Amino acid sequence: MNFIFISPNFPQTYWNFCERLRRRGVTVLGIGDAPYEGLSPELKANLNEYYRVDSLADYGQLFRAVAFYSYKYGKIDWLESNNEFWLEQDARLRTDFNITTGVQMKDIAKFKSKAAQKIYYAKGHVPTARQHKVSTPEAAKAFLEEVGYPVIVKPEIGVGAEATYKVSNARELDAFFATKPAVPYVMEEFVTGDIYSYDAIVDSHGKPLFESSALFPPSVMDIVLGNLDMPYWVLPEVPAQLKERGRATLKAFGVKSRFVHFEFFRLTKARKGLGEVGDFVGLETNMRPAGGYTPDMMNFAHSTDVYTIWADMVVSDKRLLAESGDDHWCVYYGRRDAHAYAHDDNAVMACYGARMAMTGRIPAAIAPDLGDRMFMAHIRSEEELQEYLRYLSE
Question: pLDDT tens-digit profile of 109-123?
Fold first, then answer.
């Protein structure tokens, strides 16, 4: 089997995907814009070959790289970046080279467009916030008469919280229209709730081979805009209604042979047409693994190896790794260099070092989302979780 991995060096932990594939006898071929000398030793050891391009945004260069690998190694069986930013480009390459194991160009709109996603949520009977495609101030005001302030405005096609704003009054609405970037935007009614993820590795029949959930108390948008600390955690198990609606979303979108990260609101305030307190509401689909170090957190929380489960899905279309039965919380806390803390990093390690799964500095490219320094701990109870958060945040 020949597998082309686009940008295998980012995030830096993605070498694990390559290593698990290589361990199963897969020929792993990398394409990236980083110099080969700058790749980690772990990644170098698990690539059969690496083709450097000047820019991953240059489709011509990528096309030539895939053509070279096709000529040298034969039929390409898989092509993947596991990165939302390159989702459309991955699909275009698969379509052009007849690689049928992933999303094709004809299906890309329902995964990229926040407006198109609403159709598929409705198909799966998963409630979502009402939405308006931004056109004129007059049309926006008509939508606001229906849903009221505040609203969230965000690019119709975008990644994460990029260029996303909360509009709370008429003055802010005027400011948004005065400075709006020249790309399509959508406006959504504001939902009061906590953000949960439904994460899954799915086989070629749409069946989840692995499921997990994380809770994000502050939204990523608030983290970035407010330069806040970033706490979030992987749960011991997926809440029952979230599992039901996550699986319904998988089916509605026709997801196959992927690692996915879906986001939901869990309502903390009842809203007509959406549900009661505690109900889950669809927010966004992401056709890639959860960002940052969340795959590693899943491993720690569930005493498993999601990289192995994913590689077995690629090679065998089944899960070969048994469930461990040892599930707990894995809690991430991202601190900011700009903030002063009552307990410095050394004190944190002295207090919680025995429970730390991973620590270290965060790469600059993802630091706005995740903080400058991370502490990731094994936690066995809700009480212990709250004390850990209190200690690190004080």
Answer: 888 888 899 999 999
Beta strand pairing call for 193-202 and 258-267: antiparallel
The CA-based angle 234-236-240, given to 5 degrees, is: 100
pLDDT tens per residue across span 49-58: 999 999 999 9
**DSSP letter string, 352-371:** HGGGEEEEEEPPTTTHHHH-
Residue 373, number of CB atoms within 10 A of its CB: 17
Burial tier of 285 (Cβ tally within 10 Å: 0-12, 13-18, 19+): buried
Report helix, strand or coil for 173.
helix
CA distance 146 to 140: 10
SS3 content of the chain, % helix, strand, coil (to 5): 40, 25, 35
Amino acid identity of residue 258, one-letter, is: R
Q: Which residue is it, tokens 């030793």?
A: 41
Task: Mark the ranges of the chain whose per-residue pLDDT is less than 50.
Answer: none
Predicted local distance difference test score (pLDDT) of residue 258: 97
pTM higher than 0.90, yes or no?
yes
